[in-house]
Amino acid sequence: MNFKSASVIEQITWQMRLADYPRAQNRALVAALFDGAPPYTPEEERENNVVVNVNFLESTKLAHDARQQFANAVQKPGKFFTARLDSGPTHRRQEWGTIVTNQINRVMKSCPHYYESLRSRWALLVLHGIAPSVWETSQYWCPDTMGVEDIMIPSGTYLNLKNLPFFAVYRAYTAFQLYQLTHGPRRDPRWNMPVVDSAIKWANDQAAQLNGSTWPEVWAPDKMEQRMKEDSGLYASDAVPIISAWDFYWWAEEDKIQGWRRAIVLDAYGQPGVGGLLPNKPSATDKNIIGGSNQFLYKPGKARNACSIREIVNFQFADLSAVAPFRYHAVRSLGFMLYAVCHLQNRLRCKFNEAVLEGLMMYMRVKSMDDVERALKVNLISRGIIDETVQFLPPQERWQVNEELVALGLAQNQAIINENSASMVQNSNYSKPDVEKTAFQVRAELNATTALISAALLQAYQYQNFEYNEIFRRFCIKNSSDPDVRKFRLGCLRAGVPEEFLDPSMWELEPERVMGSGNKTLELATAQTLMQWRPLYAPNAQQEILRVATLAVTDDPGLAVALVPDNPAATTDSKNDAMVSMGTLMLGLPVKFSDRSNRIEVTETLLAEMALLIKKMMARPNKMATPQELDGLQMVAGTINEQIQFIAQDKNERERAKEYANALKDLTNEVKGFAQRLAQAMKQAQQANGANGNGEAQMEMAKEKIKLQGMQLQAQTKAKNMRESHAQRTAERQVSFENEEKRRQQEHELEMRRKGVETAQELQAEDVRTAGEIQRERAKTEAQIQNDRENTPEAE
């Protein structure tokens, strides 16, 4: 497919605009209702004598709530996405991934252009279900969110865009914008400069006519460029007509090159002139901005502009359509689904308020116009005289509104609105008010809320990921003209990321998600449940759970990261304090930890350090410990016990404290074994000294000898410990943790077996009891039959 004629592109874009006109009318109705427009038009208001014509903003509130849920789902986390490196040195991947993720998200989070682009996107998704984002240049990373009416897509196109042959993007350039795009040291040579100059001159002439010929240089073409520079603000304002154009893209497969090609033509049928819009049946020759027709503003070339459509435009969809295969122009949004019932609800409320106003009026029965005059003179503010000819109508004689019917209609419409908007708007009222909820009700509401999160919100993450990949690709462009991209690359290189790894093909992006998909009620309920289960998870998982729960409560990503660091595997202050304190404790000196210390981390670190020391002592030939080492181990055990008692004060951590106590008990038994062996060795030395007649002096010498040996062993052990790397200690802790997990699994299996045996025994006992009862009943029945036979007289 190729387009070498500008007139062909003009005809195609005009036909697509005509086909989109009925859809645009429907979008206008939806937008007006959700933007607060009254339900009756001025003509309907006059013809039907409508007294109350008010939009009660139910639809507007629903739209804002749905937009907020989209924003929470995507913008609430501290990062838009996490970049993970899948090639290169394994030991550097995590470090470089963290650097790249932080650098790129810092730029994106601080960009007001991207923030407003996202805000517009959520509004379009709620109202129309489609939110196109277009990149105007090939290097600028931030896309522009455009209206659905500005993207012309052929009818019958599927949502996956697989059968999309071409599309057009509406561009409205001011003279200043077009001048900036086409002038400068890096101007694209495919701009058709004669047409560009003609268009700018047309805008200049129109501005001169609209503002009056107040410029002395208006008849000096050679000074036009200087005037454009001097009065750039005026040329960019509403005082100068815009230059409408169509940015046309099509898929081409020729010259062994496949890709999307680009051309820009002027909007031949929609360009307004000085007198307003063109007639209903315009022609290309009516628009005489360039002095002719069939000319490109931006000429097509043989080189492709993009390999994928994702490099040009990204579509976000929130499609609630029930008919598949899903098509672009068959998308059904929340605004479309709620339009009819919200519109009807507004009209019903208007009539209801008219009835209320009518009920507040006083009606009088009169017989003649003279009675009317007398009735109008009645003053009822404080006191007054009423003529006997004036009779007030009592309520029973006036028109009565069926209150129950009105209330039923309003309630049913509200229920329909709630049901249809539940997929995008959170609803926390699932049970009767003023009733205390049980845990089962809370879980049921949580399940109901989860079920109501429909595909509309889940689609946002997937389509947003497509945009993230394109943004990341643009951030990796070398020598980019975008200052943000240059800043990102410079920051990564300075942080130590090699330039060859700033390649998008080496990275995988994972969008950051929040619990509940943006639903605050569901997010808090999920966070509460995870915090209840938190003690059952591994330490690293517990840290992550605490972080996401903090984010759910505070809605502040920066505060959540500050309170709970993102990297729980790193050595924290509490772990470092515990490791440093081991030297003091082994000298037999007490150590107290502050209230800011994480007692769980302190306990786990001290237990791991104590287990490591005991293992090294057991590796000695005589499996002995010196008296000083015994005193140090006992001091460590006492300190660990203090931490366990502190942890046990929290009822949610009592199970954890019990596990720590069991581990400490095992280590204490080993310490008792050291003490027994040391006492036995001292006793043997005393007996040997008594047999030789050396008495107390020899025993003291033996003690000193043992003490000297212990000091030597301690010095050797200390030197060996200094040679041990921290990686080895970490490995020992990992082995200890794996053994502990294996022990827990074995205990769980034994518990399940024990319960199974108990259940089998109970069933067997029940069977025995049942069999015994059956036998007793049978014996009783047989005895009764025998007794009846004996008491019955025999027949003669």
Structure notes:
The protein has about 800 residues and is of the alpha+beta class. It has a domain at about 575-725. Helices cover about 55% and strands about 10% of the residues. The strands form four sheets. Strands 4-5-6-7-8 form a five-stranded antiparallel sheet.
Number of helices: 24
Average pLDDT, to the nearest integer? 78
Q: Structural class, from helix and strand content?
A: alpha+beta
What is the helix content? 55-70%
Strand coverage percent:
5-15%
Low-confidence stretches: 214-230, 232-236, 272-287, 428-434, 448-453
Strand order of the largest sheet: 4-5-6-7-8
Radius of gyration: 42 Å
Compact summary:
The protein is α+β, with helices and mostly antiparallel strands and 796 residues long. It has helices spanning 6-34, 42-47, 58-75, 90-109, 112-128, 175-182, 193-211, 224-230, 232-235, 334-359, 369-376, 403-421, 439-452, 455-475, 483-494, 520-533, 539-554, 557-563, 573-586, 599-618, 627-647, 654-691, 695-723, 726-791, and strands spanning 81-85, 130-134, 144-145, 151-152, 166-173, 243-254, 257-266, 296-298, 313-317, 364-365, 391-392, 507-511.
